[in-house]
Request: fold
Amino acid sequence: MHDPLPSPASAVVHEAGAAPLPVRLLLFVVACGSVFPLLAWVYGLGSFQAFALVVGLPCVAALVVAAIWMDRTGRWPVTRSAILAGAIGGLLGTLAYDLFRVPFVYGLGLQLLAPIDSYGVLLLGADTSSPLTAFSGWAYHFTNGIGFGIAYAVVAAGRNWRWGLAWGLLLETVVVLSPFAGRYGLVSEGQVAWLSIGLAYLAHGPYGIIVGLFGQHALARAAEARSLLRSPVLLLVGLLVAGLVGWHQPWRSAIEGQSPHVVSEAPAAVVMDGRFVPLWLRVPVGGCALVVNGDQKTIRLSSGATVEPGAYVEVCGSKPGTQRVRVDDGPFSGGWLLVDPAE
Reply:
């Protein structure tokens, strides 16, 4: 049996403990603030890193301060519970979103998770990827997921969970209709990556359902979390960060255990066992990076270049966005060129 929509009477009780609508709308915008650097970058408005420092980070800080202030003063308990429930729902929903895609990554060889690594390169303004940029990219990815969960909950707490599902699908629709689709190869030269887009919509299903369920029962979920843990969000975020640190080990070098780094003014990668080390190379529009063949056999890049062992070739980017460079057409081979118009 589906949960009923809130009755008018319960809605009155609900609104009595909520912040005024203008405040909730402001919280909605602030909670979505971490995605503004990515939107600014794909729309060509400026540097991802600059917008992260000027807009993204202050929005995250403001949201944390607002939550702490409401908790300390006891103001607007419904909105305070919505923030807590939205944060937990957003974190768990993001986990579900990623886990849904994992079988398609390793089963079909689809690079559905690759954009997350690029966020870290852009965020840190790095020329090449590294364990530190990978950690930063995934931390940014979860920050967005948590923020979207909070944004939904502060304006839709108590609503039926189906609204959360609609919210999840709306988020993917914004991605598809924005320049993000072109920058990340979902739409390129009249070709549409229907499979990747379809899987992205399906993955937003579990995200939206989880966020919707936590939003529908925000008061109950928040009360349960507080009864189990003194600072549930702080603990869960701490566990998430610890997990990401253990996974990526951001203190390591990008070439640790690999061949020596190529001495070059341009970003450079060495092909080791058919894969770029490091995996991402960032260049300006029209810029080039070096790819050195560190394998003991001749390789062929998807650009058409043939590279002998020990030799190198330039790969160049003519338009903003990401460019996959395959080695011998293997599903996980090669690496990525990140063409940054703000560079």
User: Anything to note?
Assistant: The beta strands are 187-188, 191-192, 268-272, 275-284, 288-293, 299-300, 306-307, 312-316, 321-325, 334-340. The longest strand covers residues 275-284. The longest helix spans residues 77-108.
